[in-house]
Structures are given as structure tokens and as C-alpha cells.
Amino acid sequence: MSKDGFLVYLNHEEGSIFNPAHKPIYQDMHQPLNHYFISSSHNTYLMEDQLKGPSSTEAYIKALVKSCRCVELDCWDGANGEPVIYHGHTLTSKVLFKDVIKAIKEYAFKTSQYPVILSLENHCSIEQQKIMAHHLTSILGSVLLTQPLGHQMPNTFPGPESSKKIKLAKELSDLVIYCKSVHFSNFEHSRDYHAFYEMASFKESKAMNLGPKLKRKEKKATPFIHHNMDNLSRIYPAGSRTDSSNYNPVPLWNAGCQIVALNFQTPGKEMDLNQARFLPNGKCGYILKPEFQRDPASQFDPKNLRVGPWLKKKTLHVMIISAQQLPKINKDKQKSIVDPQVRVEIYGVPDDNASKQTHHIDNNGFNPVWNTKFQFTIHVPELALVRFVVEDYDAASSNDLVGLYTLPFTSMQNGELVKISEKLLCSYYEFAHHKSCLLSSGYRHITEQDNQLKCPLQTLLG
């Protein structure tokens, strides 16, 4: 095998850190809708900040192409009888409601075949609500769900496979079938009075406070987790995030919240985690929640782990070996060659959260070699995400990002014993100046995924 052939072998899908069996849709897609995490966007129309940034149909297109399955439309009275979408009482620009619906019609199912939830924040007069209803029905046509599946309201959601009160126009109200917005008082009130198809929305701070407390002795799942077994919960960023920053979605997923809405226009760790959560299962925007977040008899509490089916304790062994041809990050610096270091982060239940990093290597972006071993204990693997971050070390200021890759722990391929001939070992040694990686317990290659990692990174997993 030639050096080029060996590189092709290393970069093949079978050698990827991401399990190719999780690339297509592989989960049961016939469970009730509330049994899934749903990729969701907040103020989807915004391209930048929440105060004066532009609104655009392009923002909806970008979100839908990324398999977002819940988009938000803030609807207000517009000129000439046409409703508009914008962040009310701010300087953000306006976009016609009908133009947004046209964009949704065209792009809703380009990446995923599964349902898109339109979250309408309605501030329109009765007259313009009727116009909204007309645009929804005339533009979306048969793709708009206008009556319960089976023609009768069942007692559970279908699966993905098939203060001042505002007066609501009947024409618009009749289009709301499965996700009727209601005010949340408390869990007991919701259990006794809310129908399954009624959905509450929570500001991030309130949702965090509804989560499990640090010291709980009850031998049952937290009330929020039980609520999310029967109802849909939508979480949205606090109004104080005027720069369109995002909160950490992981604690909300730990509580079983399905619609954890983020500002898709803002890159960063939070969106990395969101993309990773929805990376498997054909990138369809729906991920089946673990059974312990769906079973009414569950006693799961992410902050107070006890013996139960969620405890599938595993040890993750990672060896960061090397990287090749890392790009120059800041060409304005006198020294533009990177001093790379790699950090491995775990996100999940509190007991699993961890971070470890390699030493940095001076002036070598071409073929840095770390050979650094890490070990992590994962208590609840079904909720854990693993993030690899390559940075340009800087002693005087914050490090610059070189590249990253994030994926669910359960979608990682274990390392496999590599058996190759001595001739190939010598050939690889001459090429990469490192031989021991092929004699260790396993070898996986991390390459670019959705522009997250712009360089190859070698690692061992076990």
C-alpha cells in the first residue's frame, strides 16, 4: 500500500470517529412527538442581534437546511394590510409574513422529511390574523396539518413519521392542532388541566429553576422530567441576550425538554453542542430521548444519580496523537504559525462534565505530535456529548480557535486493533514520524464535519 493509499484508508468512513451506522435514520420514528429532542430555533428571522439587526427569509433557509424542525415567527401588523415579522418594539428590520411562509414551503423538507413546527408569536389584529391564516393555507397547501391525523383528536401526539389576552381569529385558531400554546402555572396544574397537545414555553432562567435541585431524596424522576414525558416544553433565551448569545442547552436536555430553542445565527460552544445532538439519525432534526426520559416509572434525576437503567458506566480512553497541516489563524500577527493544543470536553449530567487538554507545541502547525492520554468516566452515556477543540495557544491573550468536532458519546466508534505489515509500518513511520499509534488499542481519524474541524486530527479511542 502506498502512502497515498494509506491516507485514503485512514480518511475512509469506516475509520472515522463517527459511527457510520448512525449516519442514516436508524431510530424508531413512530414514537409520540414529545418523546424526541427537536432541533429548534429562537427568533429565527434574525441574522444578527436582537435590537437592530436585519430580519430575513435567508435566516429561515439557513436554519431549515441545518435540519431545524421548530422555527419562530414573531407576527405584527404591517402596512397595506400585510402582516410582518420582526422583533417587536426594536429597530430590527421587517420581513413580510407571506415571504417567510414561501421560504418555509420551499426549504422545509430539503434536508429532513420530518415535521416542522411553526411557533407563531401573534401580536396581530383580527384582520391581519385572517390574512395570516390565508397565507398559511394558500401557500403551504397540503403540507399544512389542518386536522388531527385520523380525523379525530387522539390522546397522544403522533410520531414524526406522518397576561393581556389577545383575541384570536377563528381562521387562525383552527390551524392550531397539536401545539396549542398555554400558560404554565405549576406541574400539578398542568397534570390536572392541560391536554397533551397544549405546550408551555419557558424562559431559560425559569426552566433552569424548574430542574432538579441538588439534594433530593424522592425515589422518582423530577417533576420536570415527568412533565416532559407527557407534554412538549419549549425553552427560549432570556430577553437580556440582546447580542443573540445562547445558553447551554445540555441541562434542559437532561430534564427531557424537547424544544430547546437557540439563536442559530450565533456560532459558539452552545450551537456546537446543538449540532452534535442532532448529528446522528440522518440529521433529520429529531433524536429519540433515552427510555428513562420516556418511561413514567422512571426515577431518573440527572443531579442525583441512583441505581437505574440510565447508569451504564463506561470509561472513555482517549489518546490525542497528532494533527496535520493546521491552518494559520491570525495572519496579522508577526508569528502566524500556530502553537497548537487540543482540549477534550465532556458535556452531560453534572457527574460527567469534564475537560482535559494537551500541552501546546511551539511553532508547528504542519505535523504536531502530542501522544497524550486522557481518561474519562461516563455515568450516563446516552446523554453525553464529546467535544474536541484545537486551539492556537497564546500566553498573553485568549487562545484562537483552529477547529473543533463534537458528537454524541454513543455515536463514537471504539478503536480497533490495527494489524498491518512491517513494510507498511515503516512506510507510515517515514510519513508521519509516529509508529506507536498503529500498535495501540485503537485508531480513529477526526476530519472536517460541517466546517467544524478544518484539519485532520488523529486520536485513539477505547
Features of the shown structure:
single chain; 462 residues; alpha/beta; Immunoglobulin-like; TIM Barrel; 2 domains; 6-stranded mixed beta sheet; 4-stranded mixed beta sheet; 11 helices; 18 strands
Summarize the entry for a quick read:
By secondary structure, the chain is an alpha/beta fold. It has helices at 3-11, 57-65, 97-107, 126-140, 170-173, 187-193, 204-210, 223-230, 250-254, 269-277, 422-432; strands at residues 36-41, 70-76, 84-85, 95-96, 117-122, 180-181, 198-203, 233-236, 259-262, 286-288, 314-323, 340-347, 354-357, 369-378, 385-392, 400-408, 444-446, 457-461. The model is unreliable at 417-442 (pLDDT under 50).
Please, could you describe this protein's structure?
The protein is α/β, with parallel strands linked by helices and 462 residues long. The chain folds into 2 domains: 3-19 and 312-461, Sandwich (Immunoglobulin-like), CATH 2.60.40.150; 31-293, Phosphatidylinositol (PI) phosphodiesterase (TIM Barrel, Alpha-Beta Barrel). 21% of the residues lie in helices and 21% in strands. The strands form 4 sheets. It has a 6-stranded mixed beta sheet. Strand 8 (233-236), helix 9 and strand 9 (259-262) form a beta-alpha-beta unit. Helix 2 (57-65) packs parallel to helix 3 (97-107) and helix 3 runs parallel beside helix 4 (126-140). The two termini are 26 Å apart.
